[in-house]
Amino acid sequence: MNREEIIALLKPIVITYAPPSAALDHINEESDFITDLKINSANLVDIVLDVEEKFDITIDNQSMEKMLTVKAAIDVISDKLNEK
Amino acid sequence: MIGNDVVDLLQASIESNWKRKGYLAKIFTTEEQHIIQNSKDANATVWLLWSMKEAAYKIHNRKTKLRNFAPSKLICKIDYLRNGIMGSVSSGGEKYYTSSEINLNYIHTIAAQEQTQLAYISTSIYEIPYPSDYRLSKPACISHHGNYLALVYFANQGKC
């Protein structure tokens, strides 16, 4: 799965937990979940759990630590898919 | 440095389903999960521990200049005392001291690097609509969630 395919599956997950905003309309790899998309940190866990289900991967805590931006999330998903 | 975190309990119940499979294990240590399971009010305990972690993280993050999402590395200890809920949060060799207030509407935790500093923290909590000029009072730390805005001031630094 390439980055475009990953982000296409990731976007609808992120949108579920983000309040409507201009940043959300222009979501891209540089978007920061908390500072740009205003996602509540308690909902970051939901994003991680949804990603695990959607991509059928397990995200260990060490990988979760980095998942503060769309780019970092794509990197983690990509790594985990390659490990499969 | 001081930190604080407010959890609007109604908002939390709308936004988050902590009973979801796998949720607690991503945030809490095994010991913390036991505290939740054995508590009389599991919902309040989940958000109490969460607010302790968030309040401590706000100091830890500024101190270490590291930004990450590692809630299970912020390890909580709670002491239920007659005059409130005191506790501590440890992470990477650092320890922060906390004091929390719980009522039916919200949970608010303040955190400091020394236990004695907690007594010098003053708190103002507002409901929506917040005063628009609240930043003018130069709070040392700000937290908002749902219907609540919580500002804390550290008396020792003359910011009161």
From TrEMBL, chain B:
Domain 4'-phosphopantetheinyl transferase: 2-65
Keyword Secreted in annotation: no
Keyword hit for Transferase: yes
UniProtKB keywords: Transferase
Gene Ontology terms for molecular function: holo-[acyl-carrier-protein] synthase activity; magnesium ion binding
Protein name, per record: 4-phosphopantetheinyl transferase family protein
Organism for this UniProt entry: Pedobacter polaris
Phylogenetic placement of the source organism: Bacteria, Pseudomonadati, Bacteroidota, Sphingobacteriia, Sphingobacteriales
